[in-house]
Amino acid sequence: MNLDLWALGLGSDGLPLMGDVLMRVFARSGLHARAWASRVRVPCERAVLRLTAGQERRHDAPSACGILVAFDAQALRLKAGEASGAVLFDPDKATAEPASLRRHAAAIGLSSFGLRLEPARWRMAALGGVARLAGMDLTVLEGALRAVLQGEEAASMAADLQAARAGFDAVGAQSPEAGARLGRSDRGRLVLSGSGALGLGVIAGGCKFVAAGPRAAESESFSWLASRAGRSGVILHRAADDHSAVAAALGAGLAGCRAAALVMETGCAERGLEFAERAEVPVVVASLRGAKAPVDGRGSCRAVLEPTSPADALDAALDAFNIAERFQVPTLLRLDESLLWGWQTAERVRLDAPMDRGSWAAPEAGAEAFDRYAAGEDGISARAVPGHEGLMFRTREAASSAKLSAKRESLGRGVPIPLLEGPSDADATLVAAGSSAGVMRQVMHRLNVDGARCVNVLALRCLSPFPAEAASGALKSAKRLIAVEAGPSGSLCRLIRGETGVLVSRSCAGAEGPPDEAALSRAVDEALHD
């Protein structure tokens, strides 16, 4: 049994905080959970939280609505008729008409006035109500709230906790038999958000300098880092624009520091990435607006990684810093909004990955000059920090085409390889990258029931250099190939054909923006029954 929740309100209603707290509640109760907060226009801009929790692992946010938390009258009008279990609302702001509800759905009013709450704390009462409907313990909810609200003033935290208790008790009084039977256990799990996983990867990866453009500096990822930078020894720099952020990170990388830049879109970083390729400066650039531009790895000497889940974002960040320094190339992390605004439970995380800082030069006695760009057989030069006696050099876009070609071959052997998940003799192989791969894992689990071998999934985590040798075997042996993309560009099919010669005859694509799990699932179902 799974509990599926939708919360709908305005951007100021604090839905990301609600998602963070509820994820911790379910994780501490030994459950798997997945959540996603986003903004949509329906018709005006709204904030949406979708969450699912239960004994089984889910890779997608729910399309069905079991519990609805409606922050205002418009939210009730839009979604109340879809809630199958209960609707939580504030009767001081709206009225839930019985005719608008589904049969057996309970309308539960939590009055701010009746509970003696400030209007801004109604969300805390709603949190308590959801925890009661989910059958969770009040003590677990209070512990999760304290963990999320740590740093707040004592009086404010006490008021928030009191509001959560009031909502918990009020729902229990109105619906004493309510409470989903989710089969809790004492085995707690970790919770990772995409933004937090990226920040954790930056810190665990030994990065000591992070620059961000103006919009990226307002992101959840940068805020997560800012709250921990002091005790982690990370220097944060707010740049005037994305170009300046990449340039600042390049300077830090040139000086021998592990450095990263946060930008909104890859186009703003292109000039800096091209310079880093030619000058062989290791740097990691994280794009927070996802995979909008197609990848063409031919002629470039960089790595492009697309994590498939919040947990994978941590691993990808650790890999990105090692790849950048080992091969002295820029590494681009492309994270879409679905991943950054999502949470997922995890069994464990990898924080002790060894650092690979590459080859460093040492001063030679009697040497007249240091050749920073002397090429080895693999196209990788010994690295040095400029300005040191015996190792002084000037940066220049110096790498020759032959040297970059040799380095690209070495880079291709050192990037993460894709893994075929599911039965090896499946009727069809779903090929996907980024968060779309997570949705396809859920589709695979749904279809492969009772021993069926309908589909498997080839999750492409590294798009450049494309792991053609590793992926060709799975692509060529597949009985049927279906490429799945979040947007309608078709770039994944072109990339696969250009790199491997394999023609993907069927492509399923969604609309621009974060992946729509329900739409992609329907598209795959249609493709399988063609």
Question: Please, could you describe this protein's structure?
Answer:
By secondary structure, the protein is an alpha/beta fold. It has three domains: 2-188, Pyruvate-ferredoxin Oxidoreductase, domain 3; 189-416, Rossmann fold; 420-528, Rossmann fold (3-Layer(aba) Sandwich), CATH 3.40.50. 36% of the residues lie in helices and 19% in strands. The protein has 17 helices and 20 strands. It has helices at 15-28, 73-79, 122-133, 138-149, 154-174, 194-204, 220-226, 229-232, 242-254, 270-279, 310-327, 337-340, 401-414, 435-447, 468-477, 491-500, 517-528, and strands at 2-9, 32-41, 45-54, 67-70, 86-89, 106-109, 190-193, 209-212, 235-238, 259-263, 283-287, 303-305, 330-334, 342-346, 419-421, 428-433, 455-460, 462-464, 481-485, 506-509. The strands form three sheets. It has an eight-stranded mixed β-sheet with strand order 6-5-4-1-3-2-14-7, sandwiched between helices. Strands 9-8-10-11-13-12-18 form a seven-stranded mixed β-sheet, with helices on both faces. α9 (242-254) packs parallel to α10 (270-279). The longest helix is centred in the first third of the chain and has 21 residues, at 154-174. 51% of the residues are buried. The model has no long low-confidence stretch (mean pLDDT 85).
